[in-house]
Amino acid sequence: MKIYVTGYYTTRFGEIWEQSLSELIDEAITGVLKNAGIDKKQIDAIFFSNMLAGVLGNNLHTPSKIAEIMGVNIPIFRSEAACASGGIAFHLANNYLQAGAAKTVLVVGAEKMTDYSPEETTGALMTAASGEEQAAGLTFPGLYAIIANYYLQKYGYTEENLAYVGVKNHFHGSLNDKAHFRNIITVNQVLKSACIAAPLKVLDSSPISDGAAALVLTSDKKMIGKMKNKVTILSTKTASDAISLSKRKNLDTLLAVKIAAEQAFREAKLARRDINVAELHDCFSIAEILAMEDLGFWKKGEGGARIKELSTQFGSGSPLIVNTSGGLKAAGHPVGATGVKQIGELFLQLCGQAEKRQVKNCRYGLAHNVGGSGGTAVVTILGI
Prior knowledge:
Blueprint (H helix, E strand, L loop, with lengths): L3 E7 L10 H16 L8 E5 L3 H4 L5 H9 L5 E4 L5 H14 L5 E8 L6 H8 L5 H5 L4 H16 L3 H15 L13 H6 L2 E3 L2 E2 L9 E8 L2 H6 L4 E10 L14 H14 L8 E3 L5 H10 L8 H4 L14 E2 L4 H5 L3 H16 L13 E8 L4 E8 L1
Parallel strand pairs: 2-3, 2-4, 9-10, 9-11
Antiparallel strand pairs: 1-7, 1-8, 4-7, 5-6, 8-12, 11-12
Helix pairs in contact: 1-3, 4-15, 8-12
């Protein structure tokens, strides 16, 4: 059975003081229904992704709040897989449709993070790490710094190699009016920014953001026939790995990503060279470099050198452009919304609606969403 994405909407990402979590969700749902040209009565179920509402907002029963917002009495499911919550929600929604349980569903991701102190938000995010790592006082910048140090030392790179990830993605963010950051930065600015956990700097790291994003998925042939903009879900696969870095086989490989990628490409019947645009989980600069290698776009150990070529930057003429939305680094990282926004960006690109950042001749796109330091991974491939 073919499942299609037929609508997408995202709020602005950033420090959104004037809207609550419920109001962001309401905006995303209203926006995506309008974008798809359908009524809420045509929605059979909703898959909602969120990580932190229960920890920060003391509110876990958000599905019922969504029913209240929409005025509906349909099944609403909440998914939580740390930063991969959005990708998991999409994966589950696709499987729900494949099973014939519904014809048309919404996938909605949202997060409200900036209303709380940095200490509160950091502590909440660390619930995605192992108890041992938390007890040791580690944070996610610290965990990814361990990975980055290992990678740089193993392959003979420096902090400068990492800096090019932020430079590229801020350039893309400057072209996205929904991005948290729209400023262009330089390698020197990255290197001179404050150190968070050596070798990672502020400008190597994604921000704390608010925002919501939503998608319409359908198998309804009548609805599909009326839709001008639609893309096919060719595959969506997920895999898991040990939550603790100390239990991983390799520090420079996220095994869950490799497994999910192999399965996704096999099901989609595509090669790596077929992908035109990719949204990768660049929570920290080292994460995008590892992703390019683990997904099979670059050979292991080459990423530190390849990123300096900026060959995956919009306008480079490369057959693969990465993180046209600005990625997590510049577009922002409202955790529950990120995986949904990634797939939404692919939808825009494949439908020719990405405006100033539109990649020419887009046929296939890939989204890579990661939870924690690699404990969960989701790889999704879309096509037209």
